[in-house]
Amino acid sequence: MDEALALLPIAGTGAGRAPRWMPALAAALVRIDAAGDVEPLLDPWQEPGDRARAFAAMALAYADLGRVGDARLSAQQAAQAADGSPPDSTWAHVAQALACAGAGEAAEELLRQHLLPTDRSKKGEWRRADRLARLAVAAGLAAHDQERSDKLLLPLLEDLHASKDSPQGRSTLLARLAALLPVVTATGADGRHPYAALLQEVQDVGLGYADRKDPNTWQPETVLVHALLRIGADEDPGGQLEWLTRGVANRGPEHFPTAALAVVHAAMGDAETALRVAERAADPRARAVALTAAAGHLARVPVRPLPALDPTTQPDSFTRTVQHLALEVTSHTPADYRAASSFLRLALSTAGWHHALPVLALVEPEAVARVRDIAVVHTRAAGRGGSEEAEFDGRWGR
Fold first, then answer.
1. How far is CA 21 from the centre of its chain?
2. Backbone φ/ψ region at 364: left (φ over 0), alpha (ψ -120 to 50), beta
3. Which pairs count as long-range contacts for 103-110, CB under 8 Å and 24+ apart, including other chains?
4. pLDDT digits 0-9 by tens, 184-242
5. Burial 185-211 (b: 16+ CB within 10 A, else e)
6. Dihedral, CA of residue 26, residue 307, residue 106 and residue 103, to nearest 10
7. Exposure of 349 by Cβ count < 10 A (0-12 exposed, 13-18 middle, 19+ buried)?
8. Dihedral Cα 100, 106, 107, 108, nearest 10 deg
9. Nearest-5° angle of CA 265, CA 300, CA 56?
């Protein structure tokens, strides 16, 4: 594993950038009650954006543990560190951290500062980024300030509702609806949600489209969500799974939401097929994402919406959506740590091992301590001006 650690690309092209896995490790250390080990790991890395993301990840971990005071402190550290960071997606991670710590006004202020560009060619990308950030902030605020959360959700839901009348809109309706559900379920209001009727109408139209439309026109994302909704309704998703099995075979795992499909099989209680699907990914990082996504479901690890996209460090937002929905529709299924561990061991043997850290912290916390020990050597080498590809004396598992 330490060879994978040494060869992992750094966070950016400039000197002094932290490894891409540092935020995930910082959060994992919080989860195993070793937060005091984070600052020494961060010391060699002084780039504002890197430090801001690490503190933001710690805030989310504290929030998941119910330690709101610590979450607020880490979120404030993230906001302070982000001042002067490059114009990338760091702001969205900080906004989510602030929201999860209950700092709603500060989170919304970051959203307001994300201004629509004047360059028309960049507006589509801006809208996608803005949507992801708003969903992440709304979900984070739901437990602290439902009214503020609802106000962020409503425009997104109204846009989705308006699109249900067009053929193109209906074809992706279920997948886009699923992306909103983390906000709705975070309130704990179920059918008492103020927009429950609007949500139900969108779901009914989406399911009607999926049930009646020619399967040759289906899209994988729609079918994956449809399969999970059928599982939640105690209905057989056999037709959807058959279509998905053919789809991944015809398109190839690199052109298919393979990680999400592995999660659906895990939700069906079919760990063997989930493992087989996850291992079909040829790229080692994509394989690690798929293995970890399935392991996270088996271990019942809660997930939050992604506030921004960074394919080098995280799964895509749709995989995260499927992970959340799969947990919701199988809420009475107990955790299976033994099965999850078998997936994690395979993920740790790839160059994408760092994707496993959030699940590893729950299932095998002693392994996170081992990662920390390797990372200490890595950061000391960096502090001495060593190469990012420095060799280590130790070996994983020794």
1. 14
2. beta
3. 103/72, 103/75, 103/76, 104/141, 104/144, 104/145, 104/148, 106/79, 107/137, 107/140, 107/141, 108/137, 108/148, 108/152
4. 887 655 556 778 888 899 999 999 988 887 788 889 999 999 999 999 999 999 999 99
5. bbbeeeeebebeeebeebbebbbebbe
6. -60
7. middle
8. 140
9. 115
Task: State the amino acid at position 271 in one-letter form.
Answer: A
What burial class does residue 120 get, using C-beta atoms within 10 Å of its C-beta: 0-12 exposed, 13-18 middle, 19+ buried? exposed
pLDDT band at 155 (very low <50, low <70, confident <90, very high): very high
Q: Which amino acid is at 57?
A: A
Tokens of 174: 């279920």
Cα separation, 322 vs 259, whole angstroms: 9
pTM, rounded to two decimals = 0.90
Query: Can you tell me the distance from the alpha carbon of 330 to that of 363, in angstroms, rounded to the nearest whole number?
Result: 19
Task: Inform me whether the pLDDT recorded for 368 exceeds 90.
Answer: yes
Report the distance separating Cα 219 and Cα 29, nearest Å.
39
Structure tokens given for 86: 């490059």
